[in-house]
TrEMBL record, chain A:
Pfam families attached to this UniProt entry: BPD_transp_2
InterPro entries in the record: ABC_transp_permease (IPR001851), BCAA_transport_permease (IPR052157)
Keyword Protease: no
TM region(s), chain numbering: 12-35, 47-68, 74-95, 107-129, 163-187, 216-239, 245-266, 273-296, 302-320
Name of the featured protein: Branched-chain amino acid transport system permease protein
Family indicated by similarity: Belongs to the binding-protein-dependent transport system permease family. LivHM subfamily.
Organism annotation: Fictibacillus halophilus
Membrane topology recorded in Swiss-Prot or TrEMBL: Multi-pass membrane protein
Main location: membrane
CDD domains xrefs: TM_PBP1_LivH_like (cd06582)
Locations listed in the record: Cell membrane
UniProtKB/TrEMBL annotation, chain C:
Name assigned to this protein: Branched-chain amino acid transport system permease protein
Record-annotated membrane-spanning stretches: 12-29, 35-52, 59-76, 88-109, 116-139, 151-171, 178-196, 231-249, 280-300, 368-389
One Pfam family of this chain: BPD_transp_2
Membrane topology field: Multi-pass membrane protein
Region (Disordered): 405-429
Subcellular location: Cell membrane
This protein's UniProt keywords: Cell membrane, Membrane, Transmembrane, Transmembrane helix
Residue spans of biased composition, Basic and acidic residues class: 417-429
Automatic annotation (TrEMBL), chain D:
SMART domains: AAA
Keyword match Transit peptide: no
Native source species: Fictibacillus halophilus
Stated family: Belongs to the ABC transporter superfamily.
Protein's name in the database: Branched-chain amino acid transport system ATP-binding protein
Keyword ATP-binding: yes
Molecular function (Gene Ontology), one example: ATP binding
Superkingdom of this protein's organism: Bacteria
Signal peptide span: none
Automatic annotation (TrEMBL), chain E:
Molecular functions (GO terms): ATP binding
Species classification: Bacteria, Bacillati, Bacillota, Bacilli, Bacillales
Keywords: ATP-binding, Nucleotide-binding, Transport
SMART domains: AAA
Chain ranges of the ABC transporter domain: 4-252
Name of the protein: Branched-chain amino acid transport system ATP-binding protein
Keyword Hydrolase: no
Species the sequence originates in: Fictibacillus halophilus
Length: 328, 378, 429, 235, 258
């Protein structure tokens, strides 16, 4: 049994990291907004989804105009990523303005309702536009970066099998790593990053420090949503097909990842995302083996959630969250 | 028991040119499988409108009342209550999903509203022996074995990996397939479930990769199916895939792209373009709705036609009153040889269609529909 | 207008007269214009008006009882819409009870729970498994399905089993706080659903995704409950008990300790409140309401399957609580009613109506914008609008107002009992 | 010349009329103190100046400019630093980061460093605790941090809201010394205190606030000896 | 007779020793003050006694029972009540209910009794209201009974905390800086009030305070902490003149009080 598990481990890791990377970046968006407003921004999954649609729409458009063929694919992708993240970034800012800002001094949970509302609204809006334009809201983009690779783990040791993946997986992982490093640097090492953390802890006092609180909050939404949108594009390229409802499930998982890592903690979100991705993949591939066929892949979420719960029981502040003992 | 709701038949709105008889459709008009649901509704609408004249002559005004079950059992049941309590509704065409049909039909049975399903394949739909429930397509315990037979005897599959989507439909079909395949001597290497709505099935596929089967069977719908096939091919899994009527959709091809080659599917829906009646229907449909037919359009049409036939029989001798629902249900069940545009219909004692067939298709290129490879009747 | 309201204020007789008049008019219009949803909704609205009158509580309860037990079933009973109105009312009742349960957890004890529907599922399955042949798969003794007469006991059993699970969930969960709690409960909800969806192997307990069909309807002395108008009364009775219980808990030692824990855990503890027990009690009691309604739901649907218990369902219940006004019993009732009616009746009716229009060719929509498909959009928009314009909820929670005069008298006793020195002026600036 | 002038300020919290037509002036280089009992509106006055709450009517003139409608973060950039009641340090930022926040608009790292050194001269305890999270410091330590943070912006007008609250006598003494020192170095200070005696001792002038109104004004030493002030606030 | 005996009590936060081997004995019925510079560990000391933090070492004994390892609510049941340096009221409930929470452990109502509103439960509830009201009268907040706690002024909130603590019928009452934020006159009233509490209620009081006037007037015994260690204990007169205390805490001016 162990041998079987080992055998497929390289493949599980590659797939798990790819999925986990996506969770991780979406989780960042949750964590950032949570960190600053203590709001579970339910709409974030939908921003991700919108990003995916914008990206695919652009790619389809570019294919139609023959541009995609004319320029190196990677350049096209970068272009799409940049444009999409700017668009979704502004979208995030707009959502905050209209749906959250008016509620800033209201009870915390009511903003959650507004967020759920935005989430429904966006789902239907995207659905409507896509369906209107294409007659079907399940959208499949032009296929890109489909070259297949395999890493020859078997040559390292015969107890491993080779791992197969596509170019897009590689691109996805590289892009995500760049985004994360950039963000980590921004938040922890720059002044605006520090301002974000200060606003997160005490808005009123932050404003006494010459910080424009609204601007900082907008900035936070911009960055989080831009990252989310860009991830959407990467997701679409990796998985090919998208629909308006992908944001819900992925958002949920990503939020779980954020909590696993310690919500509000940027590195935690990254680690939590990767961990969740790998765990899920591992469970789907091996639960059957591990339980002698009693539980199968359908229990993978149970497995993931169970681990989450166990982690939180022993470390209630998440993996990377610092236990802040309340000063009494 | 004591039926306290019965009572007053009351005066129904209607008036004017005879009594209003409504026939409901209940299919998903929004959400994931709205396209299929819509096509059933439109097919049914077409049939109803063609029959309007006839019923007007009998002194009744026919009306279509479409409901949206959102492919959600709870919604289906809630709507069924509405349908049941609307006395002018004398029949239902629906649903698309067995998972919705099963609970909703419990309500129909309560109110004695006859239902004819154009698409449900799960065995439990009729196996409960409800008097009001009928379907015109084949059952999963016919479809599954037919697929298994084809996989083993035609494709030579010996080691099979079964995946299903953990819905009422997917489980039912996959179970039926698995059982038949095992009986026929194939080895089932794995039996796994995936989650509807997700997009990454690499975990399960890793198992497929390491178990090295020579065929994968998927019990589920095209959205997940397409994704599954595509990701399998990306992993270098080149063996044939097979699925059931849930894969019978042009969207499957869109999603899977070239990966769709070497995919087989059984379907309970005939290709309408094969017969002249079917072709006529398609062009009528296209003309009226400016849309191409989907696999279940014609079944929506035939279901409605069968239903109206039963209704017509029930009306005889009802003296211009609304016929009782029980009567309509009885008359429908009595139908033994009705010729529709895509299928002949004759119900057995639990409401299954004796003439239902299973068709086997293959995608050899990225084009829908696939090429028909076989047609199996009971 | 303003003048009118100010005149009405304080004038109880006028309020009663107007209310009765209102009920009469709406009842009459429902009675006459049979399938009128508007009339039905307007009649329901009278309950809200009743809430805002200044009548004594007992009278309010009495009037509400008369309207709910007598007027509504009676005036809607004659027409074709009868069962569907009763169905809507029944479902509203089920959701109200659940929302009230969640309100204890979220609104009173301040524990954010995103997996609340799990308890509903547990209730539903508890009855579903034993009231179908399912139980025979794993129970070596007994004959299944149990008869519909067991339903009544199962209401209690569902209540207890759900409460038990509430405690089971609570134990591990108590270490985590705030939004961590939210995600753990969410995980719990999902786990329960997935397990129910898959427990057809190795032993077939829940029949997996196929669900449990033909659940026995309730029965008593050979009288079967099958139709919505019958379930309406079952739900009404349970709901009455639930509201009574909630009210009593809220203004009791237990309710105060919930609120204390919500407001400040450390201070609550130092007042002698057992944190763990208090939270577990909130989980258990909240869950038990859901469990009871789960049983009713299973019997009403005569079918149970896991798709009825998704995360979206939990979120919807949470929306009812927050939108209605956290911690506010009338608010939560209104919230649950509004959301359910909106989803079940208004949006459906509106879309049906628009559908009919487009079928008749009166108007035409682009396919993608078909009204049936825009429900989420409309719902989302409504949520945002409500949130922004009623951030405290539809009926914000109010703290009880104590009558100072009566307390003044009573407090003298305590003075004599414990304190020797007259402490009257003292510490006052 | 007045560095700060409040003219007939009326401030409300919802329906609560917290400031009822207050007029105050502060000359450059002065220490002015506001005293008054709980809820008199002292904190509200400071908040109105720094822009945390907006007055309904009246004007706040700072260096000749009306800033009464100016948002807090702009006001903070113009040389007014506000040490809020209850310290309000950032609990999850370290001591060092808290101080850096004080100099948010300063771009030059070197300047920040210099100022931090000056703050450490006033409050050596802060140097020892550079990496401790603000939220875990004791009450007194937090007060030092809050003042240090305000000094990081080198304000020309410092608003202090009960800086001695909860501090050890020896620290209170220090704080008052520091206030005097800062003042000697040219900083103008508006001081709100419950500790009226000490406040009036170092103040040039004082105002007495009572339920949102100024009931008395005068030189610091005048007020100390005033009978009714003694009765009400000094006891 | 001593009511509270603390021995060798120690608490560390990371590398910081917040309370270091502190011994202390408090006489029943006395008023005792704990003073010391900011960050000396006074509040931490209270937290250790009330179970909010668990000590790393040492023992806390109330009468003859050891409190170490007990949860805060259990300690409260043993008869210790406290107020908090950073006010911790139940902000969104009424003033009267805040005090009623203090009565929590004296009320016997259980789930069943509550559900059925038995006569006993109803009567108990009525008595609780009256008693809570009585405590409000006692601290002079009676007229605010129906206000939300958060809407009280700062001084009133401090008083409410005391009323809430008194409602638990403590044998030992710990007050963490009760005079903070009060002006001298209010402080003087508080001083009288504390005296009166002791007389009326037969309660032992330990308080942390930086207002030396109050401390010197009121306390029979003073303990001085610095850097977590006890550096002095004694009568006010002794402490006032203790060189170590003057240096670490009082400052020069305190030697000649105003
Ligand atoms: N955020 C607020 N919302 C509503 N009312 C408030 C608010 N802040 C202060 N108040 C009210 O405004 C009045 C003045 O309060 P303020 O805080 O300015 O008094 P203060 O003189 O600083 O008192 P203290 O000595 O207690 O700090 C008080 O009646 C207070 O209750
Ligand atoms: N939860 C905690 N985590 C880390 N350090 C803490 C914690 N609580 C207290 N400390 C530290 O322990 C020391 C003692 O703090 P404590 O609050 O007991 O001081 P105090 O004597 O009450 O001071 P003050 O008079 O200013 O309130 C301080 O240096 C403080 O920073
Ligand atoms: C559309 C089809 C996949 C429906 C399926 N045959 C069912 O019974 O649910
Ligand atoms: Mg103040
Ligand atoms: Mg302290």
């Amino acid at each position: 049994m162990l041998a079987d598990i080992l055998q497929s481990l390289p493949q599980v890791l590659v797939d798990g990291i790819a999925l986990g990377a996506i969770y991780a970046v979406i989780a960042l968006g949750y964590t950032m907004v949570y960190g600053i407003l203590e709001l579970i921004n339910f709409a974030h999954g939908e921003i991700f989804m919108t990003g995916a649609f914008i990206g695919v729409a652009m790619l389809i458009l570019m294919t139609g105009m023959g541009w995609l063929a004319a320029m190196p694919a990677i350049l096209a992708l970068i272009l799409v990523l940049v444009v999409t993240s700017i668009l979704t970034g502004f979208m995030g800012v707009g959502i905050e303005r209209m749906a959250y800002r008016p509620l800033r001094n209201s009870p915390k949970l009511i903003t959650l309702i507004s967020a759920i509302g935005v989430s429904f609204l966006l789902q239907d809006l995207v659905r409507f536009i896509t369906e209107y334009k294409r007659g079907n809201y399940i959208l499949t983009g032009p296929s890109m970066f489909n070259e297949q690779f395999s890493i020859k783990f078997s040559s390292i040791s015969s107890s491993f099998s080779d791992a197969f993946f596509k170019t897009s997986t590689l691109i996805l992982i590289i892009a995500v790593v760049i985004m994360m490093i950039g963000l980590d640097f921004f938040v922890n090492k720059t002044k605006w990053g520090m301002a974000m953390r200060a606003v997160a802890q005490d808005r009123e006092t932050a404003s006494l420090m010459s910080i424009n609180v609204n601007k900082v909050i907008s900035l936070t939404f911009f960055i989080g949503s831009a990252l989310g949108g860009a991830t959407g594009v990467l997701f679409a390229v990796q998985y090919g097909t998208i629909d308006p409802y992908i944001g819900f499930i992925l958002g949920l998982k990503a939020f779980t990842a954020a909590v696993l890592g310690g919500i509000g903690n940027i590195r935690g979100a990254m680690a939590g995302g990767l961990m969740l991705g790998i765990l899920e993949m591992f469970a789907a591939a091996n639960l059957q083996l591990l339980t002698g066929g009693i539980f199968g892949a359908e229990y993978k979420d149970v497995f993931a959630f169970a681990i989450l719960i166990v982690v939180l029981i022993f470390k209630p502040e998440g993996l990377f969250g610092k236990a802040v003992t309340e000063k009494v | 028991g004591c039926n306290s709701s019965g009572g007053s038949e009351g005066s129904n709105g209607g008036g004017g040119s005879g009594k209003v008889i409504k026939i409901a459709t209940q299919t998903p008009l929004s959400g994931g499988s709205a396209t299929l649901g819509e096509s059933i509704k439109l097919g049914a609408q077409l049939a109803l409108e063609e029959n309007k004249k006839k019923f007007e002559d009998l002194g009744y005004k026919l009306q279509l009342q479409p409901y949206d079950d959102q492919a959600d059992p709870k919604k289906g049941v809630a709507n069924a209550q509405l349908i049941g309590s609307d006395k002018s509704i004398l029949g239902v065409v629906g649903h698309l999903n067995s998972g919705v049909s099963i609970p909703s039909s419990e309500v129909y049975e309560k109110y004695k509203v006859p239902m004819v399903s154009p698409a449900n394949t799960a065995t439990e739909v009729t196996d409960r022996g409800l008097k009001t429930v009928n379907r015109i397509v084949a059952r999963d315990d016919f479809q599954g074995p037919a697929g298994a037979d084809f996989a083993i005897n035609k494709l030579g599959a010996k080691k099979i990996f079964v995946i299903q989507d953990k819905t009422a439909y997917g489980t039912g079909l996959a179970d039926a397939f698995k059982k038949a395949a095992e009986d026929a001597g194939a080895e089932i290497l794995g039996y796994e479930g995936i989650t509807v709505g997700e997009k990454d099935f690499n975990g399960v596929l890793t198992q497929v990769l390491s178990k090295k089967p020579d065929l994968v069977f998927f019990g589920g719908l095209y959205t997940e199916g397409g994704q599954l096939i595509r990701q399998a091919r990306d992993k270098g899994i080149k063996i044939p895939f097979m699925g059931g009527d849930g894969m019978d959709s042009s969207t499957l091809v869109e999603i899977a792209g070239d990966a769709v080659t070497d995919v087989y599917y059984t379907s309970v829906a005939a290709d309408a373009s094969k017969t002249t009646e079917g072709k006529d229907f398609s062009s009528k449909y296209k003309e009226k709705f400016n849309k191409n037919v989907e696999s279940y359009s014609a079944y929506g049409y035939d279901s409605m036609s069968v239903l109206l036939k039963g209704l017509e029989a029930a009306i005889e001798g009802s003296d211009g009153d609304l016929p009782a629902r029980e009567k309509v249900a009885e008359e429908i069940r009595k139908i033994q040889d009705f010729q529709g545009v895509v299928t002949k219909v004759g119900f057995d004692d639990i409401g299954d269609n004796k003439f239902a067939k299973v068709y086997i298709y293959k995608f050899s290129e990225a084009k829908y529909p696939g090429v028909q490879e076989g047609e199996i009747s009971k | 207008m303003n003048k009118l309201t100010s005149k009405l204020k304080g004038n109880k007789l006028a309020q009663i007269i107007l209310l009765v008049l209102y009920v009469l008019v709406t009842s009459l219009s429902l009675y006459l214009a049979q399938a009128s949803v508007t009339a039905f909704l307007l009649l329901l609205f009278s309950l809200l008006l009743l809430y805002y009158t200044e009548l004594p509580d007992r009278l309010k309860w009495l009037i509400a009882g008369v309207v709910l037990i007598g007027v509504i079933p009676f005036v809607s009973s004659t027409g074709p819409g009868y069962q569907s109105y009763m169905e809507v009312a029944t479902v509203v009742g089920i959701y109200v009870a659940m929302a009230l349960g969640l309100n204890i957890v979220v609104g009173l004890a301040g524990l954010l729970d995103l997996g609340f529907v799990a308890f509903f599922a547990i209730g539903a399955y508890t009855y579903g498994i034993f009231a179908t042949g399912q139980a025979a798969n794993f129970m070596p003794f007994g004959t299944f399905p149990l008869s519909g007469e067991s339903f009544w006991i199962f209401i209690l059993i569902g209540c207890f089993v759900a409460a038990l699970f509430g405690v089971l969930l609570g134990i591990p969960v108590l270490r985590v706080k705030g939004d961590y709690l939210a995600i753990v409960t969410l995980g719990f909800g999902e786990i329960i659903r997935i397990v129910f969806n898959n427990l057809d192997k190795p032993v077939n307990i829940t029949n997996g995704a196929m669900g449990l069909a033909s659940v026995k309807p309730p029965e008593i002395f050979g009288y079967q409950f099958v139709y919505p108008n019958q379930f309406y009364f079952i739900v009404l009775a349970i709901l009455f008990l639930v509201i009574l219980a909630v009210r009593r808990f809220e203004f009791s030692k237990i309710g105060r300790s919930w609120k204390a824990v919500r407001e400040n855990e450390i201070a609550a503890q130092s007042m002698g409140i057992h944190l763990v027990r208090t939270k577990l009690l909130a989980f258990a009691i909240g869950a038990s309401f859901s469990g009871m309604m789960g049983v009713v739901f299973a019997a009403k649907q005569t079918f149970v399957d896991p798709t009825s218990f998704t995360l979206l369902e939990s979120i919807t219940i949470l929306v009812m609580v927050i939108l209605g006004g956290m911690g506010s019993v009338p608010g939560v009732i209104l919230g649950a009613a509004v959301i359910t009616i909106l989803n079940l009746q208004v949006l459906t009716e509106v879309t049906n109506y628009l559908n009919q229009l487009s079928l008749d060719g009166v108007i035409s929509f682009p396919e993608a914008l078909a009204p049936a498909k825009m429900q989420r959009f409309i719902f989302g928009a409504i949520l945002i609008i409500f949130a922004i314009y009623r951030p405290q909820g539809l009926i914000p929670s109010k703290n009880p107002v104590f009558d100072e005069e009566s307390l003044k008298e009573g407090s003298k006793k305590h003075r004599k009992e414990q304190i020797t020195v007259e402490p009257d002026k003292g510490f006052q600036a | 010349m007045s560095i700060l002038q409040l003219k007939d300020i009326n401030t409300y919290y919802g329906g609560i009329h917290a400031l009822k037509g207050i007029s105050i002036s502060v000359e450059k280089g002065e220490i002015v103190t506001l005293i008054g009992s709980n809820g008199a509106g002292k904190s509200t006055t400071l908040k109105t100046i720094s822009g945390q709450v907006l007055p309904k009517t009246g004007s706040v003139i700072y260096e000749g400019k009306d800033i009464s409608k100016q948002p807090a973060h702009i006001t903070a950039q113009t040389g007014i630093a506000h040490v809020p009641e209850g310290r309000r340090i950032f609990p999850r930022l370290t001591v060092k980061e808290n101080l850096e926040m004080g100099a948010f608009i300063v771009k030059d790292k070197k300047v920040i460093k210099e100022r931090m050194e000056q703050v450490f001269d006033y409050f050596p305890r802060l140097r020892e605790r550079l990496t401790q999270k603000g939220g875990t410091m004791s009450g007194g330590e937090q007060q030092m941090l809050a003042m240090g943070r305000a000094l990081m912006s080198k304000p020309s007008l410092l608003l202090l809201d009960e800086p001695s609250m909860g501090l050890a006598p020896v620290i209170v003494e220090q704080i008052f010394d520091i206030i005097s020192d800062l003042n000697k170095e040219g900083m103008t200070i508006l001081l709100v205190e419950q500790n009226a005696f000490q406040a009036l001792q170092i103040a040039n002038r004082g105002y007495v606030l009572q339920t949102g109104e100024i009931v008395m004004a005068g030189q610091g030493n005048e007020l100390i000896t005033n009978e009714s002030v003694r009765e009400a606030y000094l006891a | 007779m001593s009511i509270l005996t603390v021995s060798n009590l120690t608490k560390q936060f990371g590398g910081l020793v917040a309370v270091n081997s502190v011994d202390m004995t408090v006489e029943k019925g006395s008023i005792t003050a704990v003073i010391g510079p900011n960050g000396a560990g006074k509040t931490t000391f209270f937290n250790l006694i009330t179970g909010v933090y668990q000590p790393d070492n040492g023992n806390v004994q109330l009468g003859s029972t050891s409190l170490v390892g007990l949860k805060p609510h259990e300690i409260s049941r043993h008869g210790i009540a406290r107020t908090f340096q950073n006010i911790r009221l139940f902000s969104n409930i009424t003033v009267l209910e805040n005090v009623m929470v203090g009565l929590h452990k004296q009320l016997k109502a259980g789930i069943v009794g509550t559900l059925f509103q038995t006569k006993k439960v109803r009567e108990e509830e009525q008595r609780a209201k009256e008693e809570a009201y009585h405590w409000l009268e006692y601290v002079g907040l009676a007229k605010h009974l129906n206000e939300d706690a958060q809407n009280l002024s700062y001084g009133a909130q401090r008083r409410l905390e005391i009323a809430r603590a008194l409602a638990t019928k403590p044998k030992l009452l710990l007050l963490d800086e009760p005079a903070a934020g009060m002006n001298p006159r209010e402080t003087r009233e508080l001083t009288e009030f504390i005296h009166r509490m002791r007389e009326d209620l037969d309660v032992t009081i330990v308080l942390i305070e930086h207002d030396m006037k109050l401390v010197m007037q009121i306390s029979e015994q003073i303990f001085v902490l610095d850097h977590g260690e006890k550096i002095a204990e004694g009568k006010p007169a002794e402490i006032r003149n203790n060189v170590k205390v003057i240096e670490a805490y009082l400052g020069k001016s305190a030697v000649t009080p105003a």
